């Protein structure tokens, strides 16, 4: 017999670091950043700024990766990022 105390919900219950509402809000925020950076990257490439376009697309890929991590509960903490 194990001396470890089990939670009332059983061993399958997981502790989530943030709520469902915060997860949805932050993933929408970062998805918007992904769209803006992707559009900016392609516009920069179309205007002949190869370096700026590649930087924009790279940042868009990183933002998309963070959205995926938020949505799959892999992000340890949520980062709020808005530039005015």
Molecular structure report:
By secondary structure, the protein is mainly alpha-helical. The chain has a domain at 20-71. It is 58% helix and 0% strand. The model has no long low-confidence stretch (mean pLDDT 84).
pLDDT average, as an integer? 84
Indicate the low-confidence ranges by residue numbers: none
Q: Radius of gyration, Cα only, in angstroms?
A: 19 Å
Query: Which range best describes the helical content: under 10%, 10-25%, 25-40%, 40-55%, 55-70% or over 70%?
Result: 55-70%
Portion in beta strands: under 5%
Number of helices: 2
Query: What shape does the CA trace take?
Result: elongated
Structural class: mainly alpha
Major beta sheet, specifics? none
SS elements, strand count: 0
Helix and strand element order: HH
Distance between the termini: 58 Å
């Amino acid at each position: 017999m194990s001396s470890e105390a089990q939670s009332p919900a059983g061993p399958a219950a997981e502790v989530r670091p943030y709520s469902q509402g915060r997860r949805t809000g932050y993933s929408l925020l970062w998805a918007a950043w992904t769209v803006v950076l992707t559009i900016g990257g392609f516009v920069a490439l179309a205007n002949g700024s190869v370096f700026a376009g590649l930087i924009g697309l790279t940042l868009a890929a990183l933002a998309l990766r963070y959205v995926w991590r938020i949505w799959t509960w892999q992000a340890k903490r949520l980062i709020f990022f808005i530039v005015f």
